[in-house]
């Protein structure tokens, strides 16, 4: 299927690895010009070189902290116009809410709620004026089924979800601008492996055993891949997805047990 977005410009945050990189790769494969961001310059340049080798859209790399005004300004300056915005940031650490102070909460909100809103604010009116825009926020399956030790993520990402629900149904929908959220479950990423390894060590378990136990708890009996996550993102960014907005797409291999 031709997604009809070749030649568009996309800003994909935190895209040097994992799910962000999967989204950037899927868009480049469709002929989209992509501006990639990440904090670590070496990792970002390596990922950008890999995507340039696809020989499709132009790929630009901007190293910096997207949660800061300076980082956002640099990323936006590198993108002639933002037709597609993929918001992404690493999740805050797990823990007991009794141990978190104001600083921990503010940091989580800055990364997982306020930064996406600032980037939407900077780009959405231009999208509406041009008559095309796709905004995809990578949040978490924990928004749908909160996890007790991920309170910082539950709170910050749920706040973004509520904001998006209102924005998506405002006047921008009539201007062919959509806003949706992708909710990943267990995907085979460095973050998942580190989290499982840390949990296994704390419980005195073997890391491989912990991986297998987690995998067997998923009806699909496997972890998701960055490639299939990226494909879902690319479709939400397509011309064909113009009638999908304000939605929370859960990609978890069937792990969520509810009907709604």
UniProtKB/TrEMBL annotation:
Signal peptide span: none
Organism encoding this protein: Caldimonas caldifontis
Lineage: Bacteria, Pseudomonadati, Pseudomonadota, Betaproteobacteria, Burkholderiales
Pfam families per the UniProt record, alphabetical: adh_short_C2
PANTHER family tied to this protein: 3-OXOACYL-(ACYL-CARRIER-PROTEIN) REDUCTASE (PTHR42879), NADPH-DEPENDENT REDUCTASE BACG (PTHR42879:SF6)
Domain of life (superkingdom): Bacteria
InterPro entries the UniProt entry points to: NAD(P)-bd_dom_sf, SDR, SDR_fam
Name the UniProt record assigns to this protein: 3-oxoacyl-ACP reductase
Residues annotated as transmembrane: none
